Amino acid sequence: MSSRAAWRLESLGFSNVYRYFAGKTDWLGYDLPSEGELAGELRIGAIAHRDTPTCRLGQRVGDLHLPDDLCVVVNEQGVILGDLRARALRAAPDTPVEDVMDPGPSTYRPNVSAKEMAHHLLESGASRVLVADGDGRLIGWISRDDVTRALDEHRHKHHAHHDGPVLASTAQS
Predict the structure, then answer these.
(1) Nearest CA to 151 among 118, 128, 111?
(2) What are phi and psi of 78, to 5 degrees?
(3) Contact status, residue 69 vs residue 53, Cβ threshold 8 Å
């Protein structure tokens, strides 16, 4: 909220007023609640798999027992340092994680719209992406199939509760 708005709220008698300096984009990037016309839009933070397998620097590939072909390398605070995909996980068992990790995986903030992510995944050919907060801490991962399924469910749910198509109802202002 701007300084003027904060001061105005205080002048109206509100005593618990805080100015958030980082701005709306940062607020939404931390997956914090929002209001307004786009608040109901499906965001990737809502569909991210939060039980993402993680590992640490110093671990050996052979010590990892993973249910999937992904391991996100994080530090003690959960900040993403890299990731291991299927090929890296097939390295010799005594190979240190840091020797085979991708040190710069792409990450996306939880406030990215699912529609935007579907387009990105289609254009890039990526099968999945990592979701992280504004400080780079791991939130989870999503696949192309997750996004498609969630968008279909969201459209179905929206049509079940409203009479008109999604675009027609939001286009009228």
Answers:
(1) 118
(2) 85, 10
(3) no
Q: At what angle do helices 114-124 and 144-161 cross, to 10 degrees?
A: 150
Instruction: Quickly count: other Cβ atoms within 10 Å of residue 139's Cβ.
Output: 23
Is 62 inside a domain boundary? yes
For residue 83, being part of any structural domain is answered with yes
Closest of 15, 21, 42 to residue 31, by C-alpha: 42
Judge whether 144 and 153 are in contact, CB under 8 Å.
Answer: no
- Tell me the one-letter amino acid at 101: M
What's the pTM?
0.75
The DSSP H or E segment spanning 71 is: strand 71-74
pLDDT tens digit at each of 173 positions of the chain: 467 777 778 888 888 887 767 777 777 777 777 777 767 788 999 999 999 999 999 999 999 988 778 999 999 999 999 999 888 988 999 999 999 999 989 999 999 999 999 999 999 999 999 999 988 999 999 999 999 999 999 888 866 544 443 333 333 33
Residue 9 and residue 45 share a domain: no
Asked whether residue 112 is assigned to any structural domain, the reply reads yes
The CA angle 157-159-163, to the nearest 5 degrees, is 145
